[in-house]
Amino acid sequence: METIKIIVLAVAAAIVYGILHDQITARICVEYFTIGHAPVFHTEDPTLLGLGWGVIATWWVGLPLGLVLAAAARVGSLPKMDARDLLKPVGVMMACCGVLALAAGVVGYVLANVGAVSLDDGLAARIPPARHALFLADGFAHQASYTGGFVGGFILCIWVVMRRYRRQGIEALKDHIERLEQSAPENGSGPVQ
Prior knowledge:
Helix content is 76%, strand content 0%. By secondary structure, the chain is mainly alpha-helical. The chain has one domain. The mean pLDDT is 94.
């Protein structure tokens, strides 16, 4: 059951992140969703686009992350980690992705304004020139989120395994201390080895 909870946690975290991220980016440049994406949602409402694309574009990132994270947290003889143990680390990873997306969006916007990056001719012809830099800012932010999610997920899984090894060491040390205390004379006058 904990394995399923971890998978659900990862998928839910990815979807919530995606919705929040897309609520912002849809307001920065709605054309990123209406022109730059397939016409899945026949609306220009940034709220609806952010909700829809926030789910469609992220659940598939959360699912493999959840599967690998669940394996890292549960497989083997090391002390197990529960979904509850992963709430804060997953939240920290998502916050880091958000900061990365913000930084990348700013970089994309600046690069577009100085002419270092531009839209390809097909998109450039369909998007008003005044919106090009905003479109690229959205693109940079989205790419940074995906990259951050995959790299962050990999780092998170390594952290989980290391944490499990640490817990095993702490448990072994506690067992050793307990055995020492049990083997000490009852009056406490003998040395503890």
